[in-house]
Amino acid sequence: MFRSKAPVVAGAMLAASLVLAACGADADDGGGGDVLRLWHYEGANSAMGVAWAEAIKQFEASHPGVTVRFEEKGFEQIRQNAGMILNSDEAPDVMEYNKGNASAGLLSKQGLLTDLTTEATARGWADRIGPALQTTSRYDAAGIMGSGTWYGVPNYGEYVMVYYNKDLFARHHVAVPTTFDQFTAAMDTFVKAGVTPLSVGGAEYPAQHVFYELALSRADRAFVERFQLYRGKVDFTGPELSHAANTFADWVAKGYIAKNSAGIKAEDMGTGFTQGRFPMVITGSWWYGRFADEITNFRWGTFLFPGNTLHPGSGGNLWVVPAKAKNKKLAYDFIDITMKPEIQNLLGNSGGVPVAADISQITDPKNRELIDNFGRLTAADGLAFYPDWPVPGYYDVLVAGVQHLINGSRTPQQVLGDLAKPYQDHLSSLGK
Amino acid sequence: MARRRGGRPTRAVVLGALTVAVLLMLAPFALVALNAVKSPADYAARGPMALPQRLHLAGIVDFWFRVDFGEKLVNSFVVSASVAVLAVLVSILNAYALGVGRVRGRTLLLIFFLLANLLPQEALVYPLYHLAKQVGLYDSRLALIIIFTAIQSAFGTYLLSSVYAVFPRELLEAAALDGAGRWRVLWRVVVPVTRPTVSVLFTFFFIWTWNEFFLPLVFLISNDKQTVPVALGVLQGDRLMDATTTSASALLGVAPAVVFFLIFQRTLTRGALAGALK
């Protein structure tokens, strides 16, 4: 009954060889100044991906002997792990990172990011990036955005607008609205014709952006600074937010927003528009490139939410230089190249919203409209950021609140109460 | 004519219910396959449920090259196979001591192993991260192999111990009379007799490790070391998802596990029946 030992020995040898294979030599990433390790998480054919690929080419041309070791990362991987990676020797030299208090702000407070203030002034980034866009680049000692040290440089901006189906507008004889009243009148026309005017995703971020647009229609810059930067008290029963909650509920009642939107995800909101089932969708410029690529069966255009001077939007994700980066000088050089007009124009021509492009160099008329609107918005200091920014975890609170408004399961007053509590709690935890 | 047991209507109902269950199980896969071969414009115009207008394989091909999928397959295979082999070895040795050897305090030890197995991985991440960094194994596949060998063998020890605890004593005594030492008894008697169970453990360890996402995501920083599930994560954007490419990648990601399951399917059935034959 004693059988051969062979299988056991073979198994052990297999295991040993596999383990040996697994710990094969690592490439060394020393600080010799001949390698730039670069990470970002934009798709290769997105506007940023295209522009940054060209920036890498230009960098290699102007830095002979230096290789760029680029890795495309997943958004989720960076979101989950940035703190751990940047605290280790695996930190890259330059990487894309999310803006905001909970992301770049937190890392800056933990001392994981390099102070870029000197470079931003010396290389002129501070002049080319307008004050509203700078908000997300600078963080104070507590990691709160809006003032203090430069920790990141955005290459692009983003903002929420109305995308509309030109064919449906023409069929129902609706003109592009320029005032809030014209906007509601246009939606009434669609409702009368049995068409739901707005494609809304209530299960994710889109519905809260509509809610915030409505609040901003009654708000001024001081409100945004109170709400986003904690510069004074926010009254949740005040004119801005109560208008938003009441109007949103009213829009559901009038049929501008479908009752089933509460369960719709952003992706389905987008395909609802691309399939031509809805004449309008209110969402961000991050959809622009995809709409441009994928909408083939109707003509479409964009306009800013009528009547508003303030809109949800901000500078895009940031280039940051980890504190443990080994080749910081190369990282600054790379960021500098991404701010050059050629790269910025390429970003604009690829369907992105550059922060410092020369508008006359943007060839596609639709792209020019997109960038023009953004220019008007920043010139009027109209970027109001996003409603979920002020409080960690506020995103889910807002999703739930707006879903209640869609379902009619809570009154606007109750929803405002739901929104107020976590906000006030967070403020008291900050000692404000 | 001989009447079959369980009349025709019962058989039809059972068959019908099973068919519905199978269709329900397969529906998500069908949807994934459907969208994997659809062009993005087609998806945008006609939605996820529509049949593709024509076969569009570019999504799958692009994804393969974009993440260098072949490399990810090798990584996943190295990690999963190493873990499966090592965890089975450790489980056998532990279970031999606990189940056959009747070490004192074995119940407590088993409870300890079970608890270790129940700990959520999120709770382990920070300690493991700091340990790995201290010994210079952060961003290495070896770290993952060690961690998963420990995690999987905790379960393996628990399961095998209970199998070995009821191992026929007569066989052990006969082997001892033949002059076999403990080591020989383990490899020549205990392991061959319980081979079906061990094979099932091996298969499960392989598939479980293959499907792990969270710890590989944390520990494999460099792209050239990443495993298949982590590579699939590259596609999830901040606010956008790319439905067709995601489907293509899901199809590619699930295929190896299915192939592996089909290969070891016979082992699994045999293992499940092993107890019943005694």
**CATH superfamily assignment of the domain at 67-234 in chain B?**
MetI-like
Number of helix segments of chain B?
A: 13
CATH-scheme architecture of the domain at 67-234 in chain B: Orthogonal Bundle
| CATH fold type of the largest domain in chain A | D-Maltodextrin-Binding Protein, domain 2
Given this structure, which CATH class of the domain at 67-234 in chain B is correct? Mainly Alpha
Summed over residues and divided by their number, the pLDDT of chain B gives a mean of: 86
Fourth-level CATH superfamily of the largest domain in chain A: Periplasmic binding protein-like II
State the largest interface. A-B, 51 and 50 residues
The rounded Rg of chain B comes to: 24 Å
Please give the alpha-carbon distance between the first and last residues of chain A: 79 Å
Largest sheet of chain A: 5 strands, mixed
Main sheet: strands, sense, barrel of chain B: none
N- to C-terminal separation of chain B?
Answer: 36 Å
Instruction: Tell how many strands the DSSP assignment of chain A holds.
Output: 12
Helix fraction of chain B, binned, reads over 70%
Overall geometry of chain B: globular
Low-confidence stretches of chain B: none
Spatial ordering of strands, largest sheet of chain A: 2-1-3-12-6
Look at the helices and sheets of chain A and give the structural class.
Answer: alpha/beta
